[in-house]
């Protein structure tokens, strides 16, 4: 496949879908149309960090037929990666993650160009600018809050949609900042002979603003439906990371500190106290011992949801997540909360 050309971050000479490719992607074209498939075919996606959530997301977006995938990860494959990262094998332990995964990603769909880099430090502003300006969408998984906010701001400067996702033990999350996103959605209010679809726009805030979301305007019922304990547990873990140089809680002895942080976050968010006056002790205790570990089923669900939403954003059909999704592996349920939208 010919490489996609860029000029100042804008594509020229977009690749057209061939008859052979149309046959491969026939089912998807029937689902969301040739124009949407064409957009995906010309899309370049940057995925950062190849842990369990990312491997599941990559599998789905590559099989769907994006044009180019750039994978960046500086770390080596560890024994723990083998549990949830199905691109890795026993003999890959000690190798760079991107080097171990590249050939297996390419085997999923030879029509997709895969570029890997084990050396780019995305916290180097100059290198980050260089790579972000030449892609269409950025997805960062299992990163700390500060790093996510930094990459999100870089994406905004270049007008690039941004996704973040990951898991903490049995909990998972997805956040997206799609800037101003236009998409086609079914018009459920139209008359029988009226238009079937309508163009809709949504404005998304960056992560640092979404994190300032306040819950004070919600009713008791609305608050309960959003399951605030999950969201605030994730926010508390990010804060714990910040205070511990990136380390996650991984011992029962971390429970008192994590609980204190979680209750501080909860109070600052102004959640209706009739619904949640303090964080559930059992949940905090569980996260104190499991947040640093990956569970394959949770990664599969969160990674699958992440990929599905990325494809929605690229296809510009149907509404993507707006804008913070949480998943509870204990119950198998998920919730979407509009954080400062």
From TrEMBL:
Compartments, as annotated in UniProt: Nucleus
Domain THIF-type NAD/FAD binding fold span(s) in chain numbering: 25-338
A Gene Ontology biological process term: protein sumoylation
Example GO molecular function: SUMO activating enzyme activity
Pathway: Protein modification; protein sumoylation
Pfam family membership, one: ThiF
Annotated keywords: Nucleus, Ubl conjugation pathway
Entries under InterPro entries matching the protein: ThiF/MoeB/HesA, ThiF_NAD_FAD-bd, Ubiquitin-activating_enz, UBQ/SUMO-activ_enz_E1-like
One CC-aspect GO term: SUMO activating enzyme complex
Family: Belongs to the ubiquitin-activating E1 family.
Protein name per its UniProtKB record: Ubiquitin-like 1-activating enzyme E1A
Naturally occurring in which organism (per UniProt): Coniophora puteana (strain RWD-64-598)
């Amino acid at each position: 496949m010919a490489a996609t050309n860029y000029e100042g971050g804008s594509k020229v000479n977009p690749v057209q879908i061939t008859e052979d490719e149309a046959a491969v992607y026939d089912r998807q074209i029937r689902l969301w149309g040739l124009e949407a498939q064409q957009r995906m075919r010309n899309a370049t996606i940057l995925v950062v960090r190849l842990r369990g959530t990312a491997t599941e997301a990559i599998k789905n977006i590559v099989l769907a037929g994006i044009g180019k995938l750039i994978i960046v990860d500086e770390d080596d494959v560890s024994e723990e990666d083998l549990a949830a990262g199905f691109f890795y094998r026993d003999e890959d332990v000690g190798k760079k993650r991107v080097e171990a995964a590249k050939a297996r990603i390419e085997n999923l769909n030879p029509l997709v160009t895969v570029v890997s880099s084990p050396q780019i430090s995305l916290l180097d502003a100059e290198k980050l600018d260089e790579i972000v300006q030449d892609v269409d969408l950025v997805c960062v998984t299992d990163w700390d809050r500060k790093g996510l906010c930094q990459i999100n701001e870089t994406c905004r400067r270049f007008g690039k949609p941004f996704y973040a996702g990951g898991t903490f033990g049995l909990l998972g999350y997805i956040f997206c900042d799609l800037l101003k996103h236009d998409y086609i959605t079914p018009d459920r209010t139209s008359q029988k002979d009226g238009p079937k679809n309508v163009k809709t726009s949504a404005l998304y805030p960056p992560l640092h603003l979404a994190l300032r979301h306040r819950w004070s305007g919600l009713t008791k019922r609305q608050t309960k439906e959003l399951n605030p304990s999950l969201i605030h547990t994730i926010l508390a873990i990010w804060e714990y990371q910040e205070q511990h140089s990136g380390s996650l809680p991984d011992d029962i002895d971390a429970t008192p500190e994590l609980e204190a942080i979680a209750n501080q976050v909860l109070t600052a968010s102004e959640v209706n106290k009739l619904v949640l006056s303090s964080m559930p002790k059992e949940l905090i205790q569980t996260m104190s011992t499991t947040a640093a570990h990956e569970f394959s089923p949770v990664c599969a669900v969160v990674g699958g949801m992440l990929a599905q939403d990325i494809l929605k954003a690229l296809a510009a059909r149907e509404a993507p997540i707006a804008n913070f999704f949480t998943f509870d592996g204990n119950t198998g349920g998920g919730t979407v909360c509009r954080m400062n939208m």
